[in-house]
Amino acid sequence: MTTLSSGFARARRWLREHPLAFDATLAFCTLVAMICSSFTDPGDGHGPPAFGARTPELFSVLLMTLTAAALVLRRRRPMQVLAVTAALAAVEYVLMDPPAPVVMSTVIALYTVASRTDRPTTWRVGLLTMGGLTAAAMVFGSTPWYSQENFGVFAWTGLASAAGDAVRSRRAFVDAIRERAERAERTREEEARRRVAEERLRIARDLHDVVAHHIALVNVQAGVAAHVMDKRPDQAKEALAHVRDASRSALNELRVTVGLLRQQGDPEAPTEPAPGLAVLGELVTTFRNAGLPVEVACADRDRLPAAVDLAAYRVIQEALTNVRKHAGAGAKAEVSVVRVGATAEVTVLDNGRGSAGRRPGAGPADGPPGDGDGLDSGGHGLVGMRERVTALGGALTAGPRYGGGFRVHAILPVEARTGEPERPGTAGGTGLRR
Predict the structure, then answer these.
(1) Nearest to 417 by CA among 392, 398, 397, 434
(2) For the chain: N or C, fewer Cβ within 10 A?
(3) What is the pLDDT of residue 47?
């Protein structure tokens, strides 16, 4: 049974790949069916048909052969084949009595037209064919106009039109489903590529924030150590200890960030939680140790979503790094995080007297010894902060303050944008506390 079904499937697949061979086979089978039917006398309807009760005329055999041969081209020229077969069938009804079943070829041709054209064309061509052949059978036949043979012509041609239209509708439905599936697949691929691009951008921002912050602190503390090494070795030792702590923190955060890029099967990535406002006190301490006085005012209210909490921490980190590098000697900074309705507002102020050219977004300028040009002298830090805030649906403004200094103000929605990935180890968010 399995062998028979597999053989049938192979034959069906071969015929589908060779439509001309299929149409030739169909034409031959139709010719055989018409010839066999022409030897059959239907009788008066009260008994079974009698085979061999009549013999078809040579002219009828010729018409049957011509109509069957025309079916070979039914896919390439459906309308022309229908016209030829219908005309020959009408000739058979007009000239021969009793007529041979030439109309069988017309039924197949009409089905082909209905399955390959639109519905209005099917209605017009179908009604014309049905009406013309039925009228020819009723008018020129020797049987009464109401005989079953005449109504059979009407029924079979109508059935061919309906069947062809149904096949065409089903084919269009299947094609639409396939197209929607392909479109959905393309959409999933595009969405996956978009998410990958967003994740790469987010990781790039994290890397910039981590490296810019810690390298700036290391640079400052190394400059202090080199300056006091000979006269005050104790203070130089303390500065080098801060350098070691900052570099260790940088390595740990880089290990966490780069660990997000690991594939399955790679060594397990670190599981330390991503930084947030819960460790804001540690961040402020590193700046105070580097000589930057920082005052913090954070409202201890509801917990923030993980993405918002991380963005607020990164904005503060980047803003304080810029203050330390560009505000000049004697600068002070103020940090505030407050909850206002459905948003969290992060503000970083300083009273620095550094030149405008040293602010983020301007070109690099010469500074005091040990300050360095910084990683964001071209404005990448400010651009990164704005991209991070905008990705969550928030807004960021940064610019000089009236009377001197600089101000960074970020408004973050408490509800993160749909699709923003959660950070590992920060599920549930962190509180707004020092």
Answers:
(1) 392
(2) N
(3) 53
What DSSP assignment string belongs to 118-187? -HHHHHHHHHHHHHHHHHHHHHHSSS-TTSHHHHHHHHHHHHHHHHHHHHHHHHHHHHHHHHHHHHHHHH
**The pTM of the whole model exceeds 0.70:** no
Residue 413's Cβ-count burial label (10 Å; 0-12, 13-18, 19+) is: middle
List phi, psi (to 5°) of 272: -65, 140
Dihedral of CA atoms 162, 166, 168, 174 in degrees, nearest 10, equals 180
Neighbouring CB atoms inside 10 A of 292's CB total 23
Beta partners for residue 334, in sequence order = 295, 349
| Whole-angstrom distance, CA of residue 304 vs CA of residue 276 | 10
Cα separation of the two ends of the chain: 78
CB count within 10 Å of CB 266 equals: 9
Cα distances from 405 to residues 53, 108, 135, 284, 314, in angstroms, run 114, 88, 99, 19, 21
Question: What is the helix (H) or strand (E) element at residue 338, kind and residue range?
Answer: strand 333-340
**96 Rama sector, left if φ>0, alpha if ψ -120 to 50, beta otherwise:** beta
Q: What is the distance between the alpha carbons of residues 347 and 349, in angstroms, rounded to a whole number?
A: 7
Q: What is the number of residues in the chain? A: 434
**221-234 pLDDT, tens digit each:** 677 777 767 677 77
Contact predicate 78/109, CB 8 Å:
yes
Chain centre to alpha carbon of residue 72: 44
Which secondary-structure segment (H or E) carries 417?
none
For the stretch 364-414, pLDDT in tens is 333 333 333 333 444 557 777 888 888 888 999 998 988 788 999 999 998
Q: 22: Cβ–Cβ under 8 A, 6 or more apart, which residues?
A: 15, 16
On the question of pLDDT at 40 being above 90, the answer is no
For the segment 318-357, what is each residue's pLDDT rounded down to a tens digit? 888 888 888 777 888 999 998 888 888 999 999 877 544 4
State the average pLDDT over residues 298-318.
Answer: 80
